[in-house]
Every structure is written in structure tokens, then in C-alpha cells.
Design a protein that fits this description.
- The chain is of the alpha+beta class.
- It has three helices and nine strands.
- A six-stranded mixed β-sheet has the order 4-5-2-3-9-8. Strands 1-6-7 form a three-stranded mixed β-sheet.
- β6 and β7 form a beta hairpin.
- The longest helix has 13 residues.
Length: 114
């Protein structure tokens, strides 16, 4: 893995702990890996993907903060420098994407445009 691949996504300690809990409860196969990506849709044009999936030849395979992830090589540009965090407060709860490439985001933070 080169430095550019390592910088695609960062995962905070809080998010890593929560992802480990989710992996224990999700019905995944032994070959399922956490996919972080984007897809067309949402209020702002692109929505984030956070799901377990199988690796393809089009994926980077990374280990970030102890979590094995895959990222589609074509989507990496949209995620470069993104930090995946987990909030567990009274005003918000769930995974939060902090993406420096986003030029605008929707009110709920689930979609963005770049």
C-alpha cells in the first residue's frame, strides 16, 4: 500500500470501536470486507456507502486503524482525505463523514457534491 492509498480515508478510534461492534452483529461471510464509497443520489448528488461487501479487482484493500476496508479505485478521488467518525451524543448519533472534497452537503450530512 502506498502513501496515497493510505490517505484515502482515516477512521477515528471511536468509529473503529463501533465498526468492530457492528462486524460482530452483522451477518457477513468470512470474505466480507467493509466497503467505504460513494454512489450517485441524495440531496446533493453523491451519497456515502458504508456496507460489507466482497472485494473486486477494482478495489484498493486497506487496513486503517485496525479495520480492513475496501474502496473502489474510481471512487477514491471523491473520498481523498475523508475522516470517518462516530458520534454518540444527545444531538447526534451515528457515523459521520468529514470530507474535505465536499463543496456542499445536505442538512443530514448523508450526501454531498464535489
Amino acid at each position: 500500500m502506498d502513501t496515497a492509498q493510505a490517505e484515502i480515508v482515516k477512521i477515528t478510534d471511536r468509529a473503529a470501536k463501533q465498526l468492530m461492534k457492528v462486524k460482530e452483529t452483522e451477518a457477513t461471510t468470512e470474505t466480507s470486507i467493509l466497503r467505504i464509497g460513494v454512489k450517485g443520489g441524495g440531496c446533493s448528488g453523491l451519497s456515502y456507502i458504508l456496507e460489507y461487501d466482497e472485494k473486486t479487482d477494482d478495489d484498493y484493500e486497506l487496513n486503517i486503524n485496525g479495520i480492513d476496508i475496501i474502496v473502489d479505485k474510481r471512487q477514491a478521488l471523491y473520498l481523498q482525505g475523508t475522516v470517518l467518525d462516530f458520534k454518540d451524543g444527545l444531538d447526534s448519533r451515528g457515523f459521520i463523514f468529514e470530507n474535505p472534497a465536499a463543496t456542499s452537503t445536505c442538512g443530514c450530512g448523508a450526501s454531498f457534491s464535489a
